[in-house]
Amino acid sequence: MAAQLMDGNVVAKRIKDEVARDMEALKVKGIIPSLAAVQVGDNPESKMYVGMQKKNCEAIGLVYNLHTLPADTSETALVRYIEKLNSDRSVNGIILQMPLPQGINPRSAQKALSPAKDVEGMNPSNLGMLLYGNPKIGPCTALSVMELLRSTGENLKGREAVVVGHSEIVGKPVAILLLQWLTDSPTVTVCHIATKDLESHIRRADIIISAVGKPGLIKPEWVKEGAIIVLVGIKRLPDGTALGDVDFEPASAKASWITPVKGGVGPVTTAILLRNTVEVTKMQLGI
Ligand code: NAP
Predict the structure, then answer these.
(1) 211 CB less than 6 Å from ligand 1?
(2) Contact 226, 203 (CB under 8 A)
(3) Can you tell me which residues bind NADP(+) (predicted)?
(4) What is the pLDDT of residues 16-47, one digit of tens each?
C-alpha cells in the first residue's frame, strides 16, 4: 500500500483528550454537560447509534439521556417535545436520531431545535453560520472530514477537491467547509446523482471526499496518483464487513492519503459530537 492512513482513532483521541480537559474545567465549576437524544420509533440503525453515543458520552462523564417517543408520534407532537427540551435548563445539548418516521419532515424537527442546543449543527441558523467560516458548531461528519484532512498536514490551497454526494448533513457542508480558508481553499466541485460524467471529475481530483454509500461507484483506476481520499460513504454488509464507495486496497495503491473504511470518519464524527456538546454548554454559560 502506497497511501498513508488518516487514522480516525488517532484524530478522535486527540479531540477526546481536548474535550476531557474542557470537561475537567467545567467540573471544577460544578457543571456536568448533558445531552438529550430524541428517538422516534424503533429503527434498528438508530438504536445502534444511540448505544454508541451513550457509551462515548458516559466514558468522558457527559450525562446522556435517551427520550424514546412512539413511532406514531405526529410532527406537531415531536416539535412540542423538542420545545420542552429547549426550555429545560438541565439539558445542554439535543440530538435528533435519524431517520424519523415517514410523516415527520426532518426539517421541521431541525428548525424546532434551539440553535444553542443543536449539537449536530443542523438547525438553519447553525447551517447558515457555516457560510461565515470557522463555525464552532457544525455537522459532525462534515467537521470530521475537515479534521482528517487537517491531520495530513497537506496544503490544499488551489488543489482540485471533488465531493461526491450532496446531502445536507455531509456533502453540502463539506463543500462549504472546504471553502472556509478564503484564499487558501481548494477549488471545489460537488458531484451528485445528476452528474453526467463522474469519471472525468474523479480523474482530475487531488482530493476525493466520497459521501454516497454505494460500493464500486468510484473505480480505483479513476483515482489520480497521489490523491487524498476520505471515505465517508459506507455500506455495511450483513456479515459485518464495511465497504466504501471506492475499493480500499486498489485505491490506496494510488492515493497518497486515505481513510480506512472502519476507524476513519466514524470515530472522529463521534468525538466531534462530544466536542459540540461541551461547546454548546460553554456557550450557554458564556465561557
Ligand atoms: P444520503 O442522504 O443518502 O446522501 C447520499 C448522497 O449521494 C445524495 O446526495 C445522493 O444524491 C448522492 N448520490 C446517490 N447516487 C449517486 C451517484 N450515483 N453519483 C453521485 N452521487 C450520488 O446519505 P448521507 O447521510 O449524506 O450519508 C452518505 C454516506 O455517508 C452513507 O453511506 C452514510 O452511511 C455515510 N455516513 C457515514 C458517517 C460516519 O460517521 N462514518 C456519518 C454520516 C454518513 P441524491 O440525493 O440526489 O440522490
Answers:
(1) yes
(2) no
(3) 165-167, 193, 234
(4) 999 999 999 999 999 999 999 999 998 887 88
- pTM tops 0.70: yes
Looking at this protein, which amino acid is placed at residue 86? N
Q: For a pocket test of ligand 1, which of 95, 192, 200 has the largest count of ligand atoms closer than 8 A to its C-beta?
A: 192
Structural domains in the chain, CATH included, are 30-114 (3.40.50.10860), 140-266 (3.40.50.720)
Q: Supply the pLDDT for residue 27.
A: 95
pLDDT score at 1 = 59
SS3 279: helix
- 210 DSSP β-pair partners: 164, 231
For residue 158, CA distances in Å to 48, 151, 182, 244 come to 39, 18, 11, 26
Taking CA atoms only, the protein residue closest to ligand 1 atom 42 is 141
213 burial class (0-12, 13-18, 19+ CB within 10 angstroms)?
Answer: middle
**Taking the CB of residue 247, how many other CB atoms lie within 10 A of it?**
16
pLDDT of 172 higher than 90: yes
Q: What is the pLDDT of residue 69?
A: 97
CA-wise closest residue to 208 among 233, 175, 231, 192: 231
Q: Choose among 192, 208, 195: nearest CA to 254.
A: 208
- Is there an atom of ligand 1 within 6 Å of 86 CB? no
Give the pLDDT confidence score for residue 106 in this predicted structure.
96
Q: Mean of the pLDDT values across residues 56-61?
A: 95
pLDDT for the residue numbered 48 = 84
